[in-house]
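Entry type: protein chain
Record version: 2
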Amino acid sequence: MIDMVGELVIAQSMVADDAAGRETTSPRLARNVAHAGKIIRDLQDLTMSLRMVPLKALFHKMNRLVRDLARKRGKSVQLITEGEDTEIDRNMVESLNDPLLHMIRNSVDHGVEGPDARAGRGKPPTGTIWLRAYHSAGNVVIELQDDGQGLNRE
């Protein structure tokens, strides 16, 4: 359907160009071509919105990952998510899964310290990872942050 709407947009553009290029174009024809163009643009917007899905399912999967990894590593870690309703193209969600999974795994494994190390640094025993998504300047931004020890440059 999306491909067909794309073809329809191209065909409408060719008709509009032909109508505009004719020396004897009637006002009625120009009005009808413009009206068809508006309908086609609305249809294109609607079909593009069908591809958009919220990040909620991806974020919930990461919540389970944090819980399982923390238990396996003997750590107490909570994941706080923001912007779960932010929508993104469904193909992008699939592309984000593996890199996001890798970064969260690194955060739990290497960033957030164990309870004893956190207590020694005056931190609460439960570490926190924040996963945020939001729109900025026409883009979707996904941020990952933890309250762990930071990077060990050595």
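Comment: The mean pLDDT is 90.
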